[in-house]
Design a protein that fits this description.
With 336 residues, the protein is of the alpha/beta class. Among the domains are: 1-59, 434 Repressor (Amino-terminal Domain); 163-291 and 323-330, Response regulator (Rossmann fold, 3-Layer(aba) Sandwich), CATH 3.40.50. It contains 12 helices and 12 strands. α10 crosses α11. Residues 4-58 form the HTH lacI-type domain.
């Protein structure tokens, strides 16, 4: 099939080409049902407007799309809330989409947001490689800011946490606590933040002379944390510490330790990453890396607003400093 035209979309949707133009440009309102029909037809055919939709746009819509891998993960829930609040301050509305950690669904979400004429997009991409084509296309359509994770080779702004510094803080704290061996439990290496956290763990344990007992890769979930810890318990003997790439994994690790009669922190120290609300409520409360989520959200909106201005600056990369919240899971009485 050759290049998809506006006429192809009109035929698929069963409407006139003029209606398709109105629906995709936002120049004049159409009914929600017509907009849905036209958008679905454009998505099905892979129609991007070839720049037509952008050219037809008469004014800003004051809407911003956001795509995150999961709205069930408390880290992304808080990040979305921060972005929504910052946008509200700027007089803009948020359209939220979950990609459910699926690059194909992510690409579909991006096409839909562009078709709906959002002014810009904030996205935490699913995959370092498989997300690239859709992100590169979307970046060619409108301003886009990557948050938390990033896809290399995409010409856009990025803001997130300094993952290397985060692991330096964790490992230095453990080394200063007398740890000489550690295991790392993470997700599979499919995105930038995961890769940087594994690399940071490897580099800083070597720097402090901590022996790496194991690196277990699965997913960001409580269930995987439980399973991975069960493997470490079964393999025995335990390392001095278990470092987790996010708090959900760490909560699963604490559950498995409790079930196996492994005392935390007497038998093993445990650390997390993100400082989700549950981290302070776990038993014992979890030592974890606190991400500056509000600052990340505000910087993402600031970068997007700047990109929407008349003078487009070169893409910026902003790695914000994290902090370490020390609690009882590493042998210190809870500090909140």
């Amino acid at each position: 099939m050759g290049r998809v035209t506006i006429r192809d979309v009109a035929e698929r949707a069963g409407v006139s080409t003029a209606t398709v133009s109105r629906a995709l440009s936002g120049a004049r309102p159409v009914s929600p049902s017509v907009l849905e029909t036209v958008t679905r037809a454009a998505d099905d055919l892979g129609y991007s407007g070839n720049g037509i939709a952008s050219a037809l746009r008469r004014s800003r819509t004051d809407t911003v799309g956001m795509v995150v891998p999961s709205i069930a993960n408390p880290f992304f829930t808080a990040l979305v809330e921060g972005v929504e609040h910052a946008l509200q301050q700027a007089g803009r509305q948020l359209f939220l989409c979950s990609s459910r950690s699926d690059p194909d669904l992510e690409a579909q979400r991006l096409r839909s947001l562009v078709a709906r004429q959002v002014d810009g997009i904030v996205i935490s991409p699913v995959h370092g490689i498989r997300s690239r084509e859709a992100l590169a296309w979307a970046t060619g359509q409108l301003p886009l800011v990557q948050v938390d994770r990033y896809v290399a080779g995409v010409d856009s702004d990025w803001v997130g946490v300094d993952d290397d510094l985060a692991l330096r803080l964790v490992v230095d704290h453990l080394a200063d606590s007398g740890v000489t061996s550690a295991a790392f439990i993470s997700s599979t290496l499919t995105n930038s933040s995961t890769e940087l956290r594994v690399a940071g763990f490897t580099e800083h344990t070597a720097r402090r002379g901590i022996a790496v007992r194991d690196v277990l890769l699965g997913e960001y979930s409580i269930a995987w944390g439980r399973e991975a810890m069960q493997r470490l318990v079964a393999a025995g003997p335990l390392p001095d510490a278990v470092v987790c790439a996010d708090d959900l994994i760490a909560l699963g690790v604490l559950q498995a330790c409790a079930a196996a009669g492994v005392a935390v922190p007497a038998d093993v120290l445990v650390t997390g990453f993100d400082d989700i609300p549950y981290a302070a409520l776990s038993d014992p409360p979890l030592t974890t890396v606190r991400q500056p989520q509000d600052d990340i959200a505000e910087e993402a909106v600031r970068l997007l607003s700047a990109a929407l201005g008349p003078h487009r600056a070169p893409p910026a990369r902003s790695a914000l400093a994290p902090s370490l919240v020390v609690r009882a899971s590493t042998g210190v009485s809870a500090s909140g």
